[in-house]
């Protein structure tokens, strides 16, 4: 391949990547900039002054919307989903390392919810709760609905992790006299810990911003995505943009924290080796 042809391909791919980045982060950039409107600013460009007025307005009593309570519900729900996602995905990954009767059927049942429209899952769970005389709530029915979305991804990730995991490490530990529990706690778990952190982070973020599977299952109290959606037809100030900026920065902070933990763990493992 000639140098000119390689150069042309490079520029074409670079332009495509730049277009992708712009399409992905352009709307976020617009929300971020508009959140710094002045006190008399509106919802569109150009900016009418620059200030952090609308960020402080988030903590004041709103005529419409309850940011603080809905954020706490979404955060708590995300933590609940994250914990269950990590535990069940880990156990499923360990179980599927060996073939057992019905494993294929169980696998397809686990991932089946990924091909069912989210709103149908939400509607079905809400109807079931009502039929049993139970009141849908964010900590019960929405919790179950979110697990139908996060667990398949967590299980698939752990399948991939254990598919590449060499049993030679476990055999070496047993040869040195380690029990099955010691082998898991001191050999297997430290090696797959970064992947478990990824599973937990993935489950938390999927739950934190899930809308469709929460719509029919949250009950009386909204989670943050539902609260934001409800406010889009009522709020006419940049406080909505400020909320978007804060929640986006919060999500990025969680990701950076997880990456920092993984980096520290890898450095410690390198020192041990």
UniProtKB/TrEMBL annotation:
Cellular compartments annotated: Cell membrane
GO biological process, one term: transmembrane transport
Domain of life: Bacteria
Gene Ontology annotations for the cellular component aspect, listed alphabetically: plasma membrane
Topology within the bilayer: Multi-pass membrane protein
Broad class of where this protein is predominantly found: membrane
InterPro entries: Bact_Polyamine_Transport (IPR051789), MetI-like (IPR000515), MetI-like_sf (IPR035906)
ABC transmembrane type-1 domain span: 71-258
Pfam families from the UniProt entry: BPD_transp_1
Keywords: Cell membrane, Membrane, Transmembrane, Transmembrane helix, Transport
Residues passing through the membrane, by range: 12-36, 75-96, 105-129, 141-162, 183-206, 239-264
CDD domains xref list: TM_PBP2 (cd06261)
Protein family: Belongs to the binding-protein-dependent transport system permease family. CysTW subfamily.
Name this polypeptide is given: ABC transporter permease
Organism of this sequence: Pararhizobium polonicum
Lineage, opening ranks: Bacteria, Pseudomonadati, Pseudomonadota, Alphaproteobacteria, Hyphomicrobiales
């Amino acid at each position: 391949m000639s140098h000119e042809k390689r150069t042309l391909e490079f520029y074409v791919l670079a332009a495509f990547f730049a277009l992708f980045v712009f399409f992905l982060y352009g709307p976020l950039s617009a929300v971020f900039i508009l959140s710094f409107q002045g006190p008399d600013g509106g919802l569109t460009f150009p900016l009418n002054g620059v200030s952090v007025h609308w960020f402080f307005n988030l903590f004041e009593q709103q005529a419409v919307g309850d940011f603080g309570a809905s954020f706490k519900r979404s955060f708590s729900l995300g933590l609940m989903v994250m914990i269950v996602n990590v535990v069940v995905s880990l156990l499923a990954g360990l179980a599927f390392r060996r073939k057992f009767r019905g494993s294929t059927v169980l696998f397809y049942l686990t991932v089946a919810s990924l091909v069912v429209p989210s709103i149908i899952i939400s509607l079905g769970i809400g109807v079931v709760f009502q039929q049993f005389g139970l009141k849908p709530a964010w900590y019960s029915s929405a919790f179950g609905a979110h697990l139908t979305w996060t667990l398949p991804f967590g299980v698939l990730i752990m399948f991939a992790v254990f598919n590449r995991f060499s049993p030679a490490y476990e055999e070496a530990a047993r040869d040195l006299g380690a029990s099955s529990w010691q082998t898991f706690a001191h050999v297997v778990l430290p090696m797959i810990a970064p992947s478990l952190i990824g599973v937990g982070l993935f489950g938390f973020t999927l739950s934190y911003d899930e809308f469709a599977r929460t719509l029919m299952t949250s009950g009386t109290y909204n989670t943050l995505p539902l609260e934001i959606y409800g406010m889009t037809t009522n709020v006419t100030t940049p406080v909505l943009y400020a909320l978007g900026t804060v929640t986006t920065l919060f999500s990025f902070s969680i990701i950076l924290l997880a990456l920092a933990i993984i980096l520290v763990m890898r450095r410690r493992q390198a020192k041990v080796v």
